[in-house]
Write a structure and sequence with these properties.
The protein is built from three helices and 17 strands. With 287 residues, the protein is mainly β. A hairpin with a 2-residue loop joins strand 2 and strand 3. This is Fibrinolytic enzyme isozyme C.
């Protein structure tokens, strides 16, 4: 595919890479990303994004037991606004800018959920939030572009693990899923993104959506976003897009108009999935 065609098709999404990041948990330290995250800071506000899964499919029960729905109290009712990923029984990873002007006592999460509306399934649990911690480089709210757009939600009570509530396995080395050089067809194992954001028909789905995708070569990401060249080369960012060999009208499978903290999971044939990234920015031209 020509460089001109690549530049014309800027429906890409950037994910914050989850690798070698020190996340302080209860009596444990898990290696996750590249920057230390201070658990001393409680979030009062950081910002909200919506997710749009384009050309996705309905997920099945038990398929993504780590997926979390984050809700806020708004005008007397609970409203979904961001995704997240369960990493321990009491910790959820998400994007920091999901919480602009929003305190922890106005947030709750649902784990084990497949359908946002209607009767709950027997596995899901609604859990209130005790603290929300943002990366130490972010103050009250995200100002401009911050490559450390990540937050950790601490649950008020531990999630009870079951068939549809399980922590995600974190990739020890995310580079196994990336390419360094440009290829017409990338050969690394495919990945999957999930969420309840608006579909290509501008409809908010009831059922969790999934879409297969691949991580783009680093040099293509750098060409698309030269301002973030260092963030890509330093391993902070990944960007994704569907395979080039798909028909043109189906070349964009993925989030659009913001990802809102949803997970990027990778594994051979979408099996044995590992957490590789958290959605932090989407190119708005995909709309």
């Amino acid at each position: 595919m020509s460089e001109q065609k690549l530049n014309a098709k800027k429906e890409k999404v950037i994910f914050l890479k989850i690798e070698m990041f020190w996340l302080i948990l209860t009596n444990i330290c898990i290696v996750l990303n590249v920057i230390p995250l201070s658990t001393e800071q409680e979030i009062d506000s950081v910002g909200k994004l919506r997710k749009r899964i384009m050309l996705g499919q309905n997920a099945q029960l038990f398929e993504f037991p780590f997926q979390v729905a984050v809700q806020e109290r708004l005008s007397g009712r609970w409203v979904f606004f961001c995704g997240g990923v369960l990493v321990t029984e009491k910790k959820v990873l998400t994007a920091a800018d999901c919480f602009d002007h929003l305190t922890a006592n106005k947030v709750r999460v649902i784990v084990g959920v497949l359908n946002l509306y209607g009767p709950p399934n027997q596995y899901q649990q609604t859990i209130y939030v005790s603290n929300i911690h943002k990366h130490e480089s972010i103050e009250d709210e995200l100002q401009g572009w911050n490559p450390n757009n990540i937050a950790v939600i601490t649950l008020a009570t531990a999630a009870k693990l079951n068939l549809n509530v399980q922590p995600a396995k974190i990739a020890e080395n995310a580079t196994q899923y990336t390419e360094t050089n440009t290829h017409e067809k990338w050969m690394k194992p495919p990945c999957v993104i999930t969420g309840w954001g608006y579909t290509e028909n501008s409809i908010l789905p009831n059922t969790l959506q999934k879409a297969s995708t691949r991580i783009m070569p680093i040099n293509i990401c750098q060409n698309m976003w030269p301002s973030f060249k260092d963030a890509f080369s330093d391993g902070l960012f990944l960007c994704i897009k569907s395979d080039f060999d798909l028909p043109e009208e189906h070349q964009y499978n993925g989030p659009c108009y913001g990802d809102g903290g949803g997970p990027l999971m990778c594994g051979p044939n979408n099996q044995n999935l590992q957490l590789v990234g958290i959605g932090c920015f989407v190119e708005p031209s995909c709309t």
